[in-house]
């Protein structure tokens, strides 16, 4: 494709939206991979996911959510007990402080309920824009762009933006993609990053975005070789789309 520096703004918008449509075909059923049943559980799980994996968090939260069901439960938690429960997710002391602070803030300022507005969410301990967008998009149905490590890496590879700061990445991508698509786009990009477009060796040779990607070729382009790099339950579907 034409190099990004030669691309017009209109060309970039069209390419970004075309790539989003291709991702929708590649990943027709996307979702938050953290297990939760309500906004509080999702907020807690997202805080725990920092410097951890969704899989590890999902192994930790059943016991946690059984013991701590309300904001008041977190606000009045025994620190040692809470630390022990969330220890497997890493950085458990800092996360314990965040969860206790979260519970206290929710009880004191929001009647124990997680607010459904960005401006209020980001005032809570442990909650930045990334966590807020996860909660808004998946618990409240409010469109949001979640800029995690996968999302940032991929949109820079695609030359949608060269920004490194997550807030600037969020703004740049939000100007390319329709607002109603933001939450789904976030899931699609994250799925693609986990399954196909890996950090060290992306599976370029079986990527549905190959014709639109300025970074095509940084990973193996030989389809049989690339096919071995694809991960996840969608592998068969993704390889079929690539003609493998």
Secondary structure: elements and pairs:
Layout: H1 9-26, H2 39-48, H3 54-67, H4 71-75, H5 79-86, H6 92-110, H7 118-121, H8 129-139, H9 149-157, H10 166-174, H11 182-195, H12 223-227, H13 235-241
Helix pairs in contact: 2-8, 5-6, 9-11
Keywords:
Endonuclease III, domain 1; globular; mainly alpha; Endonuclease Iii, domain 2; 244 residues; 13 helices; DNA-binding; hydrolase
Concise structural overview:
By secondary structure, the chain is mostly helical. The protein folds into 2 domains: 4-30 and 146-241, Endonuclease Iii, domain 2, CATH 1.10.1670; 39-139, Endonuclease III, domain 1 (Orthogonal Bundle).
Task: Explain what you see.
With 244 residues, the protein is mainly α. It has two domains: 4-30 and 146-241, Orthogonal Bundle (Endonuclease Iii, domain 2); 39-139, Endonuclease III, domain 1, CATH 1.10.340.30. Helices cover 55% and strands 0% of the residues. It has 13 helices and no strands. The two termini are 23 Å apart. The model has no long low-confidence stretch (mean pLDDT 97). [4Fe-4S] cluster binds at residues 197, 204, 207, 213. InterPro entries: DNA_glycosylase, Endonuclease-III-like_CS2, Endonuclease3_FeS-loop_motif, Endouclease-III_FeS-bd_BS, HhH-GPD_domain, HhH_base_excis_C, HhH_motif, Nth.
Annotated CATH architecture of the largest domain = Orthogonal Bundle
Number of helices: 13
Helical percent range?
40-55%
Strand tally: 0
Please give the domain count.
2
Backbone shape: globular
Q: Given the helix and strand composition, which structural class is it?
A: mainly alpha
Helix/strand order? HHHHHHHHHHHHH
Low-confidence sequence ranges: none
Predict the CATH topology of the largest domain: Endonuclease Iii, domain 2
Protein name: Endonuclease III
Enzyme class: lyase
Cofactor: [4Fe-4S] cluster
Family: Belongs to the Nth/MutY family.
